[in-house]
């Protein structure tokens, strides 16, 4: 019997040696397709027959696969057994459709905790302090910007940080935020045990909305969390609340956020993720109180280097049969 085939979708920049080392135990193949239609055609033409594992390097794979929806999953090679998704969030994969085809799906949680929590800290500071006003003004050649100048920002010290979703990233953010003098409350589907909560106060969803000076979204996107923050939720928040989203754009209603910014209910926002990436609601782009990043929360050499280990593990799994 030949070696099992592993199909790489997307680019590898920092784990090339580990990827190549997999060839000891697997036949490494790449797709010729440049877009989803071509990929589906490539799968159905039989060129990828024999592929047992897909190594999905999101987001660079997205241009070729689009969402792993029912249509795509039905087209994948009949021999496929595993999809190894290199991100933490796997909302782009219809896991039920994979299960129906007996395809196992794995993701990479934990490795992104530091990088994502660091990004949340950056956005919290930027939004609280109004740094985006200054960043825009200095690049426009107007030094500190408008006359009269924009209102003074706020220190994180003494503020209540509400964390919605207290998984690995939420807990990592809690520790970092405490170093800036913030006190942390959280809401999660389940209350954490004492050790994991580490002093963070568990509150109801409504209390989280009502008590947070800064609200950080750190929960996965799924049918139950889509638009979990929308107009009724903004109404329950403090006037002048600051919101940061490093999770998925789909958990917050962007149009409702623009309205809440325009009325002053929300003072400022820090965003790394959007509902329809790479498109961003024009009301967010034009608002100087919104600090925007192009979904780069996990884009570090260290995260990519840890992904290397996942190739090594994939190799070991193949060897173990
Ligand atoms: O967004 C990045 C990830 O899900 O890892």
From TrEMBL:
Question: Which organism is the protein's source?
Answer: Trichoderma guizhouense
* GO MF annotation terms: glyoxylate reductase (NADPH) activity; hydroxypyruvate reductase [NAD(P)H] activity; NAD binding
Oxidoreductase found in the keyword field: yes
Please verify whether the record's keywords include Acetylation: no
Task: Write out the GO cellular component annotations.
Answer: cytosol
Entry superkingdom: Eukaryota
Known SUPFAM superfamilies for this protein?
Answer: Formate/glycerate dehydrogenase catalytic domain-like, NAD(P)-binding Rossmann-fold domains
Query: Where in the sequence is the signal peptide annotated?
Result: none
**PANTHER family documented for this protein:** 2-HYDROXYACID DEHYDROGENASE-RELATED (PTHR10996), HYPOTHETICAL D-ISOMER SPECIFIC 2-HYDROXYACID DEHYDROGENASE (EUROFUNG) (PTHR10996:SF269)
Q: Where is the D-isomer specific 2-hydroxyacid dehydrogenase NAD-binding domain?
A: 122-297
Which family does the similarity line name? Belongs to the D-isomer specific 2-hydroxyacid dehydrogenase family.
Against InterPro entries, the record matches this protein to: D-isomer_2-hydroxyacid_DH, D-isomer_DH_CS, D-isomer_DH_CS1, D-isomer_DH_NAD-bd, NAD(P)-bd_dom_sf
Record key words, sorted:
NAD, Oxidoreductase
Entry protein name? D-isomer specific 2-hydroxyacid dehydrogenase
């Amino acid at each position: 019997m030949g070696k099992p085939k592993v199909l790489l979708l997307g680019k590898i920049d920092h784990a090339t040696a580990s990827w190549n080392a997999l060839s000891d135990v697997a036949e490494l193949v790449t797709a010729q397709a440049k877009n989803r239609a071509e990929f589906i055609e490539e799968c159905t033409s039989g060129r990828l027959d024999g592929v047992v594992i897909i190594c999905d390097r999101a987001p660079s794979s997205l241009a070729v696969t689009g969402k792993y929806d029912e249509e795509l999953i039905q087209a994948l090679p009949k021999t496929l057994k595993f999809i190894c998704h290199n991100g933490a969030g796997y909302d782009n994969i219809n896991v039920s459709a994979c299960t129906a085809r007996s395809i196992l799906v794995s993701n990479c949680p934990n490795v992104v905790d530091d990088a994502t929590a660091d990004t949340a800290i950056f956005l919290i500071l930027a939004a609280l302090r109004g740094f985006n006003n200054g960043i825009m003004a200095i690049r426009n050649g107007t030094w500190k910007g408008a006359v009269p100048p924009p209102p003074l920002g706020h220190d994180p010290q003494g503020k209540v940080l509400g964390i919605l979703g207290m998984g690995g990233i939420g807990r990592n953010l809690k520790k970092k935020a405490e170093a800036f003098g913030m006190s942390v409350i959280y809401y999660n589907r389940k209350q954490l045990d004492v050790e994991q909560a580490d002093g963070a106060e568990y509150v109801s969803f409504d209390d989280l909305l009502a008590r947070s000076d800064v609200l950080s979204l750190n929960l996965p996107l799924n049918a139950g969390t889509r638009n979990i923050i929308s107009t009724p939720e903004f109404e329950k928040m403090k006037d002048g609340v600051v919101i940061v989203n490093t999770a998925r754009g789909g958990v917050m209603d962007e149009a409702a956020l623009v309205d809440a910014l325009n009325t002053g209910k929300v003072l400022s926002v820090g965003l790394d993720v959007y509902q329809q990436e790479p498109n961003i609601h024009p009301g967010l782009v034009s608002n100087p109180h919104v600090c925007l990043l192009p979904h780069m929360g996990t884009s570090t050499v260290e995260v990519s280097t840890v992904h290397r280990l996942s190739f090594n593990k994939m190799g070991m799994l193949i060897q173990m049969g």
